[in-house]
Design goal:
Elements (H helix, E strand, L loop, with lengths): L8 H13 L1 H19 L5 H10 L3 H12 L1 H9 L5 H16 L6 H11 L1
Helix pairs in contact: 1-2, 2-3
Length: 120
């Protein structure tokens, strides 16, 4: 997926034709672009208004997304508002799981603990 600004002239013209022929696709593209802007600019405060705009359109797939976002809206707003990521934590969890799998069935908890500390 690329931003429309990076498309060649032919690709941009085709995209314009397709979006003109299908208003639903045009609406989805606009909502996705708005959500992308929220993520890039860390503007979680815009999420409730975005969800209301999506609900106003006849787009069942996006309605499902909005329903999921509303279930834990505070966490989603926080995630869209801060630059923090859980990537480093996830990396460590993956590393520990790999070490555990290598010794599966052959090690006890003490050896597993030592291997994790030595590898870290």
């Amino acid at each position: 997926m690329t931003t429309p600004g990076h498309l060649a002239d032919v690709g941009a013209a085709e995209l314009k034709e397709i979006r003109a022929a299908c208003p639903h696709l045009d609406a989805v593209a606009q909502h996705v672009r708005d959500f992308d802007d929220m993520m890039r600019d860390l503007r979680g405060d815009l999420l409730p208004a975005w969800m209301d705009r999506v609900q106003a359109d006849d787009l069942p797939a996006l309605h499902s997304l909005v329903a999921g976002l509303r279930r834990d809206q505070d966490a989603v707003v926080a995630g869209l508002s801060t630059g923090w990521s859980s990537g480093q934590v996830e990396d460590q969890v993956t590393r520990v799981k790999l070490i555990k799998r290598k010794g599966y069935g052959r090690t006890n908890l003490d050896l597993l603990r030592r291997r994790i500390l030595v590898a870290g």
